[in-house]
Amino acid sequence: MSSHKRSLTRRRVLGATAVAATATAAAAVTNSGLLATASAAAFGYSDDGTNYVVDTGAQLVFKVSKSTGDLTSLAFRGKEYEGYGGKHSHVESGLGASTVSVKQSGATILVSVTHGTLRHYYAARSGQNNVYLWTNKADTSFTATRYIARIKAGIFPNSGPDAWVEASDTVIEAGDVWKQSSGQTRSKHYSGVRVMDYDYVGYTTGSVGLWMIRSNHEKASGGPFYRSLLRHSNDGGVGLYEILHYNQSQTEAMRFGLQGPYVLGFTDGAAPSSALFAKNLDTSWVDGLGLAGWVGKSGRGKVAGVGISGRDTDHPYTVGFANAAAQYWATANASTGGFSCAGMLPGTYTLTIYKGELAVHTRQVEVTAGGTTALNTLTVTGDPSSANALWRLGNWDGTPGEFKNAKLMTYAHPSDTRASSWKGNVVIGSDATTSFPCYLWKDVNDGILVYFKLTAAQVAAAHTLRIGVTTAYINGRPQVTVNDWVSAIPSPPTQPSTRSLTTGSYRGDNHTFVYNVPATAWQKDTGQYNVLKLNVVSGSSGTGYLSPGIAVDAIDLLA
To answer: Are strands 389-394 and 317-322 parallel, antiparallel or unpaired?
Structure first.
């Protein structure tokens, strides 16, 4: 047989039984938990001259370009789902000319893509309606921020905060924030979800579901609370994302190495099975595939802690692990503070305990392959809430969550009609926290006033004023005035250089500004209110919601 004919011959799994074309498709749940079916299809691949065509032996057939490594077709139950705007699915916006190869190893078909130092992989497992993917970014020679699966328009509902209609909605910022005639805003940035809070994103018609099940993100950046692109839809098409390293509101450097598997999977309309989630997925079948950078279960370790003391039980606690090579996290038990994090690459990590999203304790921890690092009870040492305060706005938890408009801002623009007024002064007591805006901008609500009273004993002493911020835009920081006393302008801390407050993220580098207010600043008449004025200052300029700004964590006056 000629080599050309061999390349067109479908490869079959040894021992697989082809089912007659007239047989009734019987749905069954495979070990992966996604829909499988007995059908006429046989597991294998072929070469159509332009693409490698992979038949999963279930109801999914997909194609990978032999020249670029793009995913060029996703045909489920005979219907094409892939592609929009003349583009296909790929790393970044497409790798371009690449070396692409295919091989079958028992119940797995692997397509390998090489582009310079970057490696990308697609895999199919016999009888599963899934595409398994990995991306190995070795260095900065090729920008690899994401994998995007592009899906045809008109198949899935075009709804949600990350959906818009270009034919009727209006762009209001940077070409990626839209406003509807109702005054509500939409953007691909408005997922409203932290990476630790989701396992998958996607769409369903009720009878067909298409999902992107995320990887463990060990080679991504930003930590457990990072918010990024997850999906979008409009009248042009649908995008599903696996983020490799995204710069928007980013607080960490890019990590390198193999990220995955992440899974693009079809179901019968239901959500994907938890068996496919990164924390549950059996990857033993990957060990023999020869993926560059792959480390199997035996080459990984675990950290287990018996508890955390000094917690405020009104708040959740997360334990994060990070070094230059990898990141992980685990949720602490609400009762004991105990935690366990498995599947970690060997190395030395900075362990950080977060109260909410605020770092309150750090230490180093060593992880070894095949081992468990056991930790005794850890004690919180850096919670600002432990200081005695005369009054406090908000909670020291690393978020602006208690303040006005905070929850809305993770999935809407500040100009959204649903937002309450960004202006309005507050009086300490009653509903001061819920009336205080979560964000302050130089050009929008500068000069917010906080009224408070002090006792005779309190006005006789100096006090420390603290303002915690979770992020800042273009070097915004607070200068304060207390009655007639004016603080110096503080230096700007390091913060992400991109948009944040308008793109669904309050997350940056938590920072506390400290002001030592002298006794001479206070109103001596204890029946009169003291007035704290907050001004946002910066050497940079901008207008409206893109003027210098800050997101507020908490404000307090210490005893």
So the answer is: unpaired
Write the single-letter amino acid at 155: I
Whole-number Cα distances in Å, 402 to 347, 397, 477: 37, 10, 20
Q: Other CB atoms closer than 10 Å to residue 372's CB: what's the count?
A: 12
CA distance 150 to 92: 12
Question: How deeply is 96 buried, as exposed, middle or buried, from its count of CB atoms within 10 A (0-12, 13-18, 19+)?
Answer: middle
**Token pair listed for 275:** 């068996």
Measured torsion, CA atoms of residues 145, 154, 30, 270, in degrees rounded to the nearest 10? 100
Pairwise CA distance, residues 177 & 159, whole Å = 15
What pLDDT is stored for residue 430 in this prediction?
A: 80
C-alpha torsion sign, points 77, 81, 86, 87? negative
Concatenated DSSP letters of 274-315: GGGSTTT---GGGTTS--TT---GGG-EEEEE--EES--TTS
> What pairs with residue 319 in β-bridges?
330, 353
Q: Please measure the distance between the N-terminal and C-terminal CA atoms of the chain and give it in whole angstroms.
A: 88
Check whether the bond before 261 is cis (ω within 30° of 0). Answer: yes
Tokens linked to 113: 């893509």
pLDDT of residue 39: 42
What does the alpha-carbon distance between residue 463 and residue 74 come to, in Å, rounded to a whole number?
A: 64
CB-based burial, 189-223: b 16+ in 10 Å, e otherwise: bbbbebbbeebbbbbbeeebbbbbbbbbbbbbbbb
**Listing from the earlier edge strand, what are the strands of the sheet with 301-305?**
339-344, 301-305, 372-375
HSE-CB for 28 with a 13 A CA cutoff: 12
| Per-residue confidence (pLDDT) for residue 154, from 0 to 100 | 97
92 vs 147: CA distance, rounded Å: 6
pLDDT along the chain (559 residues), means of 10: 36 27 29 41 95 98 98 98 97 98 98 98 98 97 96 97 98 98 98 97 98 98 97 98 96 98 98 98 98 98 98 98 98 98 98 98 98 98 97 98 98 98 94 96 98 98 98 98 98 97 98 98 97 98 98 98
| CA separation for the pair 533, 396 (Å, rounded) | 21
Q: Which pLDDT score is estimated for 401? A: 98
Q: DSSP letter at 524?
A: S
Among the listed residues 201, 219, 218, the one whose alpha carbon sits nearest the alpha carbon of residue 210: 201
Query: 435, exposed or middle or buried, with CB in 10 Å at 0-12, 13-18, 19+?
Result: middle
Question: Is residue 202 a contact partner of residue 276, using CB atoms and an 8 Å limit?
Answer: no
134-155 exposure pattern, b = at least 16 Cβ within 10 A, e = fewer: bbbbbeeeeebbbbbbbbbeeb
pTM given for the model: 0.92
Residue 290: φ, ψ to 5°: 80, 30
What does the alpha-carbon distance between residue 203 and residue 479 come to, in Å, rounded to a whole number? Answer: 46
C-alpha–C-alpha distance, residues 239 and 71, integer Å: 13
CA distance 359 to 492: 20
